[in-house]
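Record type: monomer structure entry
Structure origin: computed from sequence
Chain ID: A
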Amino acid sequence: MESLRSLLRPVMSVPLARHLVVALVAFVVAMAVIGTSSQYLQTRYAEMAYFAIAAGGLTLLTGLSGQLSLGHGALMAVGAYAATLVLERTGGETLADVFVALLVAIAVCAVVGVVVGVPAARLHGPYIAGATLTLAVAVPRLANQWDVLGGEQGLQVPVPRASELPAWIQDLIWFFTAVEIDQYSFLAYLGWLLLVLTFVALANLSRSRVGRRWRAVRDDDVSAELAGIHLGRARVVAFTVSAMCAGLAGGLMAMNVRLTAPGAFTITLSLTLLAAVVLGGLGSLTGALIGAGVLAFLPHFATDLGESAGLSATQAAEVTPVVYGLVLMLVILLAPAGIVGSLRSFLARSSLTSSLGQTKEKTT
């Protein structure tokens, strides 16, 4: 064990190498879990993956750079429509079509992020929240005005069938899970692969010079400007990176739902994403992942619980937002820093108490 620790110590001391090792282990574990799960759970895991990507970008924007956005649901809509239009034209029959669609979704959202981020960089606090709230209300309604976006009914999203995937991917999945890949597991694997890559990129970015500039701007913008940091540029970069994450999440959401319609991107989605970030812990990627897990599993758990209590399917679905709100209220009351933030505080207090106890024993 000691030799293994000494072997890993140089690797784990480098942030990029540490993040890659953790990401590789996490993806292998995710593959094993997805491969042995039912189609229902595979769909939930895929849902959790794209919510986590969007929440990761939002927690970076809100927790690190201090910009409150209520419009990430609209940015997901932009990414979803961009990916859907590309898949319609390419046919969406191959893996290359999928990656091209996702890259276009990311690129389009990067442009939108710059366009929105430049004026938003001049705003603070509730004013930037109000501006992005307008975006969340306006963007879904635009889809009703243009026939190319399918109107209220939306657009069907073609997704490649598992049998059309390259043979080496099917063999690789079989090698790790001993289970043949199907369309549900393919979307779950794809979502978690992109989630791991996105989190590695965000984790490295937050520990880089760019991340330190974001924290400086968030903590004290006057001191940051005196230190030579360009406030507007730092805020626009943060907004653009966050918008790119939302675009990728929107593209994945379109493929999983197989329908892109304005009803899926209402203001409720933006508020739910923000609630997930607050619930997990602002500024923490682990917190974003936990919040996304709650977002993906809690509504279905509450619906099943309601039906088992004798409610109809409609009544159980109406109870779900109440349960979600109660859980959020309890977390805010019992863990004001979010689940991850409160857990870190608890561990720090326990470590301090243990150290003080050992010091007291030595002195006596």
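Annotation 1: The radius of gyration is 22 Å.
Annotation 2: Strands lie at 155-156, 259-260.
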